[in-house]
Amino acid sequence: MSTFELNLRPITEADLCFLRQLYATTRAEEMASTGWNQPAIDAFLAQQFDAQHRYYQEHYHDAQFSLICHQEQPIGRLYVFRGPSTFNLMDIALLPEWQRHGIGTRFLDALIREADEAGKAIRLFVEATNPARRLYDRFGFVVTGDNRVYLQMQRGARTSLEQEVSA
């Protein structure tokens, strides 16, 4: 992890092609089980990405939509909405070859420290079978809802005293 030069930068219209490709990698396993041909999969994923992107832009216009970059090369995305009482971790995704290197952990840890300092909780939605769920469990997120597609998980803000006791 320490050998990676990682930074965040705001997404731009020029990043949409990369973001579509990244989105497709997050649904590859699901798409493999559909039996659809590649053009059908590509069309479906493009439609789904466009709908998600439009929804996020319209409903979370004050959110931070960032690319995760190694040096200047995009390798993932981090979308966070900082609400008045809760931070919403809308999405964190990395290209498959960049997963399991501690990168998600690094950015989640930074977001948790920021939320704790601000006295705010963090909420997210994750599929029950997503391997990232183990990461969220390790960071103290608990399931607070289940809509049969996604689990809602939340982590309350920790005061500095609580952080000292748990260390």
Features:
41% helix, 7-stranded mixed sheet, alpha+beta, Aminopeptidase
Written description of the protein model:
With 167 residues, this protein is of the alpha+beta class. It has a single domain (6-166), classed as Aminopeptidase (3-Layer(aba) Sandwich). The chain is 41% helix and 28% strand. It contains six helices and seven strands, in the order βαααβββαβαββα. The chain has helices at residues 16-26, 28-32, 38-59, 103-118, 132-138, 160-166, and strands spanning 6-10, 64-70, 73-82, 86-94, 121-126, 142-146, 151-155. The protein has a seven-stranded mixed beta sheet, sandwiched between helices. The longest helix has 22 residues, at 38-59. The chain is globular. The chain starts with 5 loop residues before the first strand and ends with a helix. The model has no long low-confidence stretch (mean pLDDT 92).
Report mean pLDDT, rounded to a whole number: 92
Largest β-sheet summary: 7 strands, mixed
Tally the structural domains.
1
In spatial order, strands of the major sheet run 1-2-3-4-5-7-6
